[in-house]
Specification:
By secondary structure, this protein is an alpha+beta fold. 32% of the residues lie in helices and 24% in strands. Strands 1, 2, 3, 4, 5, 6, 7, 8 and 9 form a nine-stranded mixed sheet that branches. It is globular. The chain starts with a helix and ends in a 7-residue tail after the last helix. About 9% of the residues have low confidence.
């Protein structure tokens, strides 16, 4: 983990402690996986997120941040811990999750609010490869756009589409400038010391049955349309 990545992980943990309960502490990654599963379920039934479900069918991967906290206690920035799962080669199954930290001191929620659920749809191989390699800056290393929401929503072309639900509200979210970094400590604890995202998601070298419900939820929401 990079130096800045350690800062992100610390901010994500601070957000957990300050707001209590929805995402995992460093000793309990399973809570984060369970919270990610709940977030996917929330997005699956929200009537205002039809475009999210449409784009999810073509996504290469999904980064799920169950609790993204925005507040002055972290210098006006935002922080959250999340899981990243990639679509399998045959397009139906989804990988076991790797753990990441996401944050920025210049983060801006378009729809307001203090606590948000966020899902980033990784729409391109470039976007996925970037996340597998190292720390990335959204809008710099990869292109990012707020996911289109509502009737008549226009298609967006970007490596990553960002969606958010905030206290019952919904909307595309501006994550330009946010930094995402691998949470090595979480990956080590959930799988095995030295487990890397590439080995977890692409090579399938590591597994944890605790993620089965999350993988099923992703398979359901990310199912590709049947060809007529």
């Amino acid at each position: 983990m990079t130096g800045f990545g350690k800062v992100l992980a610390a901010l994500a943990l601070a957000a957990t402690v300050a707001f209590g309960g929805n995402i995992a502490l460093a000793s309990d990654q399973q809570e984060l996986v369970d919270a990610a599963t709940k977030t996917v379920s929330n997005f699956a039934v929200d009537p205002n997120l039809e475009s999210f479900r449409e784009y999810a069918r073509d996504a290469e991967a999904m980064l799920i941040v169950p609790t993204m906290v925005k507040g002055g206690f972290i210098f006006g920035g935002s922080a959250g811990s999340g899981t990243l799962s990639a679509r399998g080669k045959k397009g139906k199954s989804w990988s076991h999750p790797a753990f990441y930290a996401m944050g920025s001191v210049t983060f801006g929620l378009q729809i307001g609010g203090e606590v948000s659920e966020i899902i980033l749809l990784v729409m391109s191989k470039k976007g996925l490869d970037s996340l597998l390699s190292s720390s990335i800056k959204l809008g710099g290393d990869v292109s990012v756009a707020a996911g289109p929401v509502g009737q008549g929503a226009k298609a967006q072309t970007a490596d990553i589409l960002a969606y958010s639900r905030t206290k019952g509200l919904y909307g595309g979210i501006n994550v330009e400038g946010a930094v995402i970094d691998v949470n090595e400590e979480y990956n080590d604890a959930y799988y095995k010391a030295g487990a890397r995202p590439l080995e977890i998601m692409i090579e399938g070298k590591y597994k944890n049955d605790g993620a089965n419900d999350l993988r099923k939820a992703l398979a359901k929401i990310g199912a590709k349309k049947k060809k007529k």
